[in-house]
């Protein structure tokens, strides 16, 4: 089994290069078909995301097909790209690389879980294109199992490493179950969209999206079962909010101390958790001085994120140990596949001998020779036929060797002969 991985990712090439070599869902089936038309390619899986394009191949043992040349031709690349953009892994290292990718150890954000879903999609696409066989199929299934083990046995995914995720995780620490909470999100950009998704996934009771452009807020609110308001309507809804998270491009504060004091009176001093992700700040610093207000800024979250990144780095060391162990296991399976043709030949030879002595025994029985005599002759003849060639080779090896012969030691192990 000749397993090779070719790739380009966020650590080896800029986005301008990566986007030239990426595949979309529409052209991936054609790409797999084109790649599989090469006689030297037995199996193939193509993984293409914003951060990487990788081709996993099972090739003919004696031919390392130029897959990178195929990639350039298929993507119609006329410019010569630097070889330093690309990497190539073979055998054990290819296995280990896939496991690291599946576990998020090779990702831009350490430990992120999205790549596992992307690998599963690539696997399904290869299956649908009939580009997957026994070897790569088993490898990818094992990679999925390793990723699950790493998620279960380490803390690689337990700590938030984005400000949006950190903000929601902090809210969960304070409120526990978010199903009884209402959140007011100020802004409708990428960060607030991520916050909204995380809150929605955590079964938040109610989401209010406030934005300068109400239409944009409405589009986001609709996707998370919330409702939209304008920035001017915030004072009328602030008292409803247990959680306030803000991230706008405003140059002036949107929430001041006075409006927050009014909301607290209406809430009868029920606390409000606030996170200001904006720079410049959306929430006046004086708001943090109020009782029953828990105000966090972006710097506070960065401290949490850095602490959590260190936690992930520690977990990544544990994950590497799991990956190395599992890669060793799969490498053993790969080596065992090299023995399959030999085992088949031995069995075929044994079955041929069996058929020969059985036919002779049947003829003897038809001639009236006693069954006991026929069976004894059958056993003796079959034993001699099966052991003649091994015995001959062992004697020849002993004759030609002055020292301990590895073939003799192998025979002891093969036949489980004890001293």
Structural write-up:
This protein starts with a strand and ends in a 5-residue tail after the last helix. The strands form two sheets. The chain has a six-stranded parallel β-sheet with strand order 7-6-5-8-9-10. A four-stranded antiparallel β-sheet has the order 2-3-1-4. The chain folds into three domains: 2-153, Beta Polymerase, domain 2, CATH 3.30.460; 163-305, 3-Layer(aba) Sandwich (Rossmann fold), CATH 3.40.50; 347-414, no CATH class. With 419 residues, it is an alpha/beta fold. Strand 6, helix 9 and strand 7 (227-230) form a beta-alpha-beta unit. The chain has helices at 15-18, 28-36, 67-74, 92-102, 114-128, 134-153, 163-175, 190-201, 214-223, 234-237, 257-266, 298-338, 340-366, 371-400, 406-414, and strands spanning 2-9, 41-48, 52-59, 87-90, 182-186, 206-211, 227-230, 243-246, 272-276, 293-297. It is elongated, with a radius of gyration of 33 Å.
Order of helices and strands: EHHEEHEHHHHEHEHEHEHEEHHHH
CATH class of the largest domain: Alpha Beta
Q: Cα-atom Rg, whole angstroms?
A: 33 Å
Number of strands: 10
Query: Helicity, in percent?
Result: 40-55%
Distance between the termini: 36 Å
What fold name stands as the CATH topology of the largest domain? Beta Polymerase, domain 2
Could you list the spans in which at least 5 consecutive residues all have pLDDT below 50? none
The secondary structure category is alpha/beta
Task: Kindly estimate the percentage of residues that lie in beta strands according to DSSP.
Answer: 5-15%
What is the assigned CATH homologous superfamily of the largest domain? Glutamyl-tRNA reductase, N-terminal domain
Assembly type of the chains comes to single chain
Global outline:
elongated
Enumerate how many helices there are, as a single number: 15
Mean pLDDT: 90
């Amino acid at each position: 089994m000749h397993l090779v991985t070719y790739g380009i990712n966020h650590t080896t090439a800029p986005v301008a290069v990566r986007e030239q070599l990426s595949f979309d869902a529409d052209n991936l089936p054609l790409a797999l078909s084109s790649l599989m038309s090469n006689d030297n390619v037995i199996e193939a899986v193509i993984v293409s995301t914003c951060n990487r394009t990788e081709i996993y191949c099972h090739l003919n043992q004696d031919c390392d097909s130029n897959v990178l040349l195929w990639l350039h031709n298929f993507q119609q690349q006329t410019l010569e790209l630097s070889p330093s953009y690309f990497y190539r892994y073979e055998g054990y290292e290819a296995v280990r690389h896939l496991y690291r990718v599946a576990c998020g150890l090779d990702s831009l954000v350490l430990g992120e879980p999205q790549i596992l879903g992307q690998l599963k999609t690539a696997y399904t696409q290869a299956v649908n294109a009939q580009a997957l066989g026994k070897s790569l199929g088993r490898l990818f299934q094992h990679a999925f199992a390793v990723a699950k083990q790493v998620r279960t046995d380490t803390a690689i995914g337990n700590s938030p490493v984005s400000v949006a995720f950190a903000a929601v995780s902090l809210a969960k620490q304070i409120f526990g179950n978010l199903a009884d909470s209402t959140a007011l999100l100020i802004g409708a950009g990428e960060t607030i969209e991520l916050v909204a998704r995380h809150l929605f996934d955590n079964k938040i009771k109610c989401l209010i999206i406030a934005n300068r452009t109400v239409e944009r807020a409405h589009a986001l609110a609709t996707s998370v079962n919330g409702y939209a308001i304008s920035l001017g309507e915030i004072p009328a809804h602030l008292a409803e909010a247990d959680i306030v998270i803000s991230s706008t491009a405003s140059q002036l504060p949107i929430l001041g101390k006075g409006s927050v004091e009014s909301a607290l009176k209406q809430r009868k001093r029920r606390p409000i958790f606030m996170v200001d992700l904006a720079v410049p700040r959306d929430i006046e610093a004086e708001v943090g001085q109020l009782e029953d207000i828990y105000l966090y800024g972006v710097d506070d979250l960065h401290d949490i994120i850095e602490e959590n990144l260190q936690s992930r780095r520690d977990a990544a060391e544990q994950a590497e140990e799991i990956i190395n162990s599992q890669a060793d296991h799969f490498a053993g399976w790969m080596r065992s596949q090299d023995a399959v043709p030999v085992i088949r030949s031995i069995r075929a030879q044994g079955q041929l001998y069996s058929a020969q002595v059985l036919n002779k025994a049947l003829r003897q029985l038809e001639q009236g020779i006693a069954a006991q005599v026929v069976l004894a002759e059958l056993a003796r003849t079959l034993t001699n036929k099966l052991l003649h060639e091994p015995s001959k080779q062992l004697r020849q090896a002993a004759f030609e060797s002055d020292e301990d012969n590895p073939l003799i030691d192998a025979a002891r192990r093969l036949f489980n002969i004890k001293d």
